[in-house]
User: Fold this.
Amino acid sequence: MLGAKILLVDDEVTFTENMAKLLNARGYRVTTANSGDEAIRMLEKENFDVVVLDLKMPGMDGLTTLKEIKKLDLFTETLILTGHGSIDSALEAVKLGAYDYLTKPCEIDELVAKIEGAWAKKDEEVKKDIEGKIQKVVESPSSVFDVFPREKK
Amino acid sequence: MNNTGAGKLYHYKSGNDAARKSYYRRLFRRFIRLTLLCSLIPLLLVGWGINVHYTRFAKDRMMLAFRSKVENHRKIIELFLKNRVSGLQLIAKTHTRDYLTNVSNLDYVFEMLNREYGSITDLGVIDQSGRHLAYIGPYDLMDKNYSKAFWFKEVMNKGVYISDMFMGFRKVPHFIVAVIRSENANKWILRATIDTDSFRSLVENVRIGKTGEVYLLNRAGVYQTSPRFKGKIMEKAPEPVGEPHEGIEIRIEDKGTKYGDSPSPRRIIASTWLLQPQWKLVIRQNYSEAFNDVSHANLAALVFLLLSAGAIVVVAVFITSRMIKMIKERDLEAERLNKQLMQAGKLAAVGELSAGVAHEINNPLAIILTERQILLDMVNRKPIPDRDFMDQFNKSMSQIDNQIQRCKRITQNLLRFSRRTKSVIEPVNINQFLSEIINLMEREARSSGIKFLTDFDENLPPVLSDPSQLQQVFLNMITNAIDAHEGKPYGSIRVITRYFPQKKGVEIVFGDTGCGIPEENLDRIFDPFFSTKPVGKGTGLGLSICYSTIKRLGGDISVRSEVGTGSEFTIFLPSEPPGDLIKEFEGDSEQSTAAFDY
Assistant:
């Protein structure tokens, strides 16, 4: 079974590269982005299971990026990386719908555990959504077109 | 280094104190000067003005009084003399010489005159050659010839004559009044001697105060009556008599004007000239007595003025010292607030700085951590057969991890110091809370030979505060207390709680028997990064975190310490935290009930 698809967002290029290596070695499929804009562009193109997002970035910061991600309305769970001091903003991020937060620097095992949690949650959400849709279709078959709109090519 | 810094600070402070003291003294003097200037000068001006005007007024009144006195006396004397003259003239005009030369007739007239006017000593009729034709009186003067006497010539020329006092044949001072009668071709003279006693008593008996006197002088300056004090009738007066004039002359004679033997005091002298005879009526009184009332009034005014001035001085000094005291207190208060503000500013600045530094360090730390993990991953995948290398590799890796953890702790401390977490406010039972923490710390303390002594106030009410922040502060206090015993085999830590209903709060005291804090460090122990612990042992943030935490909770923290004996930290916590903290907390709980603990 393939590991989760992860988008790693941090302005430190070395950090993202290293992290990508580590996570790849643990079976995840990792894509890196070094700014909020880049992350949004990638999310528009591709689906990811988990986004690991650093809060402190130049330009578009983590919180703004998170809001943008939420606007896209994807089944993606977001994991926040933060310095210890900005726990308030981490909490705010959780309130905005992030899955959880981690303080930097963090152990790889910790990160992996949180990623697994986030992934599981994402899967559950997807499952719930599909179940809900099926339920709807079962109740009213004619709504099948509303529930599963034809994909635009 | 710390010590020299503190020493400088101390010297600067004491120099400042001296400067401030002299500043307050200057301020005091300036206030006093101003107050006195503003109140005493008008007072003195008013006093002086009243004095001058009143004195002038009183003097004018006194002069007027003297003038009327002289006037009255002159009238009395003139009336007296006129009476005598007109009496004699009436007799001379209504009687013939032949009738009056008859002694019994003359005696009858003499009796009548004395009955009507009195004070006539004798009466004589003299013919134009100066011989007595008839005489009634106590002396035997029938054979006297007056043709050579000075008055005889005068009366022959003028018709009416009043003489000066003279001794005459009788060798007693007397004066005469003579009138002439022309009967056909014959002229005869009716002459009377006036009783000097009754005349003199008219003048001499007048008493004006203690020093006032009235007397008469003739044109030659000879006393016509005896003055009250110095001099006698018929003697020459020492002062110049001056020329006859009309009206009344009043002058004030200066003190020490010398006439003859002794200098006189300052006197007021009023004089006027009689017409017939040309005598000078003088009223004289010592100035000091005449103006006694004025000087009394002036003295009273002066005393009152001095009393008022004294009262003003006393009040000015009193009020000014009160004011200076108030200013001093204000200054101290302002200084205290300033100090607090500076401390807060320092904390804020350091907080910002440390937050920045911590963030910047966290990123490289995260990278180092990932690099380490990559290496570990690689070695795990492809083990290296060289055992020595592997041993060293593992050792280095764990050391790197240790050091990273250490850095992390430091940055976390820095961030904790600077961050502004939202507080969780709930009722805290301080006694129970402290007991739990003490239980936690007891083992560590026992290993250092330290006992805990607790003295809890049973009636301590629960305090509305943030338990997690309090826990950190209390832990820090106890850790510090334990650390203070380093190098001592045993010791004790006292934890005391007290309730202060009037201050609406509780006090928690942490006392230790440790090394104490040198006085020069006491001012700085709450400063961030101030530490006396060896490098690597402490960040110097503990107490400053405690300080800012307690301040944020609306409390206060203070310290007393003696080197070698121990230190005592007293924390005051209000029963309820400041309003803005509650508001912040309530606003927060509306959005989310998720309480956050670090």
Notes: Residues 294-415 of chain B form one domain.
